[in-house]
């Protein structure tokens, strides 16, 4: 089991086009939740090919994609997204992800979380000209990717592990995703208070 690291020096250059920002909106994972997840990950050691670095753990609400001239959209995209109730994220279990060979921790897809996703879709759709809602998954499956699993024949036998932890979400973050030296890095480009 190893953390995602740089693999070759030929991957030095970011895959991101100059002048563009690859954006997504996500919730941070609190440190106390990371401790719980790390403890649960120990039982999957034999199945794990590569762990996702804890600093990269997040729960994506919306993948926006490439945005040219981000600065002209930053203020609107980062503006407050008021909610009638304090949203919470409740993790339910660890298990095989919807993507092949991935280990996910799943969250309960509450009405509040789905409402936030719809509000974000409306906001981004009205601001970013090249944004397409058709590129979004049909069903919102809130999750955190924790690891890549070993080969598919083994990973299909990964058992689910129940987990019940909840935390309040008071803000979301606009992240820029870039690849440098073979490792994915996330830079905060804005904060969306809820």
Characterization of the model:
With 194 residues, the protein is α+β, with helices and mostly antiparallel strands. The protein has a single domain, classed as Cyclic phosphodiesterase (Cyclic Phosphodiesterase, Chain: A, Alpha-Beta Complex), CATH 3.90.1140. The chain is 20% helix and 40% strand. The chain contains 4 helices and 10 strands; from the N terminus they run E-E-H-E-E-H-E-E-H-E-H-E-E-E. It has helices at residues 31-41, 71-77, 111-127, 152-155; strands at 2-3, 20-28, 48-51, 58-68, 88-96, 102-107, 143-149, 161-168, 171-180, 183-193. The strands form 2 sheets. Strands 1-3-7-6-5-8 form a 6-stranded mixed β-sheet. A 4-stranded antiparallel β-sheet has the order 4-2-9-10. A hairpin with a 2-residue loop joins strand 9 (171-180) and strand 10. The longest helix is centred in the middle third of the chain and has 17 residues, at 111-127. The chain is globular. The relative contact order is 0.28. Residues 1-14 have low confidence and may be disordered.
Fold blueprint:
Blueprint: E1 2-3, E2 20-28, H1 31-41, E3 48-51, E4 58-68, H2 71-77, E5 88-96, E6 102-107, H3 111-127, E7 143-149, H4 152-155, E8 161-168, E9 171-180, E10 183-193
Parallel strand pairs: 1-3
Antiparallel strand pairs: 2-4, 2-9, 3-7, 5-6, 5-8, 6-7, 9-10
Largest sheet: 6 strands, mixed
Low-confidence stretches: 1-14
Query: Which strand order does the major sheet show?
Result: 1-3-7-6-5-8
Extended strand count: 10
CATH topology: Cyclic Phosphodiesterase, Chain: A
Q: State the helical fraction.
A: 10-25%
- Give the N-to-C terminal Cα separation: 37 Å
Strand proportion: 35-45%
Assigned CATH class: Alpha Beta
Radius of gyration: 17 Å
Q: What is the structural class?
A: alpha+beta
Architecture per CATH nomenclature, i.e. the level-2 architecture: Alpha-Beta Complex
Question: What is the succession of H and E elements?
Answer: EEHEEHEEHEHEEE
